[in-house]
Amino acid sequence: MAVQTDALLIDKIAAVVDGEVITYKDVQVAAILKLSGGDEKEVLQTLIDRILLLREAEKFKITENGEDSRRIQKMLDDLKSSLTEERFYNVLREQNLTESEVIKMIKDKVRAEKFIDFRINFFVVISNDSINAFYVEHSEEFGEKPLSEVYEHIKTQLFSMESEKRLEEYLKGLRKRVKILVNL
Asked: Which residues contact 49 (CB under 8 A, 6 or more apart)?
């Protein structure tokens, strides 16, 4: 007598962050839906960092507001149009996801970014001296353009560089305080 059993598909674990599991499916979905850029390892690192940032956002009571809701809806709409709506829903079916789950992923991304603005970017100040020094050191890039014409571009570039540096330092500190196992 044959016994019929239902097969149980278990997703492979890509990483564990203090007991919180990230599966290969999570990595694939984030890559497909363009919620993280780069190769598989970069996407996984982004998901690990997002978990850490969301925990910090929770501690600092970072919540969603009306502007965030509009931004989340716009990101969802942009995602649908970038993939085409038909492809978007095909991906959901293929990955066994609901639109609500995708919205939660987008909300998590927005909340993490909001925390970065609150905890990192708020403290980044770019001085006029830094802008002037960058202009002089990189004068060949700007050709004959006067500083006044490229001032905002330089300020934005320096802000971005400083923000990324501070965020990476902050994340290194967070990573040291938790147990992270990577299986990729």
From this structure: 112, 171
Q: Token pair of 59, please?
A: 């501690």
C-alpha 78/C-alpha 74 separation (Å) is: 6
Is the Cβ–Cβ distance between 54 and 108 less than 8 Å? Answer: yes
Task: For the chain, give the longest Cα–Cα distance.
Answer: 86
The pTM score is 0.87
Tell me how far apart the alpha carbons of residues 129 and 169 are, in angstroms, rounded to a whole number: 24
* Spans of the chain below 70 pLDDT: 1-10
Would you list the DSSP string of 85-122?
HHHHHHHHHHTT--HHHHHHHHHHHHHHHHHHHHHTGG
Residue-wise pLDDT tens digits, 96-150: 999 999 999 999 999 999 999 999 999 999 999 999 999 999 999 999 999 999 9
Helix axes 85-94, 66-83, angle to 10 degrees: 90
- What's the CA gap between 46 and 9, in Å, rounded? 26
CB 184 within 8 A of CB 44: yes
Chain-centroid distance, C-alpha 165: 15
For residues 113, 114, 115, 116, the Cα torsion angle rounded to the nearest 10 degrees is: 50
